[in-house]
Amino acid sequence: MSSKDIFFLHINSLMSATKMTPENSSTVTELVLIGFSNHPQAEIPLFFLFSLIYLMNLFGNTAIFVLVVIDSCLQTPMYFFLCHLAFLNIFYTTAVVPKMLLNLLASKKVISYDLCLAQTYISLLMGAAECIILAVMALDRYTAICYPLRYLLIMNWSLCVQLSAGAWTISFFVSVVPLYFTIVPICGPYIIDHIFCEVPVFLHMICNDTSLQEIVMVIGASGTLLLPFLLIVLSYLRILVAVIRMHSAEGRKKAFSTCSSHLTVVTIYYGTGMFMYMRPKSVYSAEGDKLISLFYAVINPALNPLIYSLRNKEVQGAMQRALERWKVFQRQNILP
Q1: From CA 172, how far away is CA 122, in angstroms rounded?
Q2: CA-CA-CA-CA torsion for 188, 191, 194, 199, nearest 10 degrees?
Q3: To the nearest whole number, what is the mean pLDDT of the chain?
């Protein structure tokens, strides 16, 4: 028997185990979440791999958050927004990864309808918020490089709080609210050929014509993906002009180093996010979309702390100071 036949037998057993009836979508409580069921031999290795990546995400983003709180040298606008990014990364992956890990080990690979809906809302909100926060961080870098003497005056704490609150509020109203008012009942077969629930996948289970939902998704993506992306591009064009005008090679090097981490994160996140959310439902590949979603929902959040710390002397210095404080604390507790 081929692996394809085994896969379809496995799906049929999952369908019968969940006892779902396509005739009555209002009573559905569980959905089949295929995940990596078509590669059963890889599920255990993937469980350990994704568990490691998830722990890296939790440790790395929590470390960034703690360092910014305890080290006064990092209490600047850039790291204030980085804390929001760290919180977002933890929250996003925690809504997705634990259930994915459980399904890798479970014989009955299902997800409750309520959790599926929650994942759809959370992934949409977190994705929109990350786009806007990355745009705000680009504005912060533009101000720091183009107006260095007035930087702290312009990017004062009041403005930073307003920008962060605005990012979360706008994200909610342009992503969650439209989805709430346009979402309609789904119909069987209740099978999700994905690793978690998100809008492009959810559209495939809607019984009726999804043109309205697709239009709303593209409009929402334009507001939370394209507009912030254009703002980032314009900010970096201005930064590039300012850097070219610098007479000092050391100044140019320092300016580029402060932007390189942010540019790396933007490139990775926007590349995958635009492909996933700014396309019609017809352009769909289950296996390809799983890999893309894995990258921006699981792997990228774990990479962000590494990207912002490995080449960042300020973060490295804060880590060294934190370790020195810990060693002093340990010595004080050991000595009588």
Answers
A1: 10
A2: 20
A3: 80
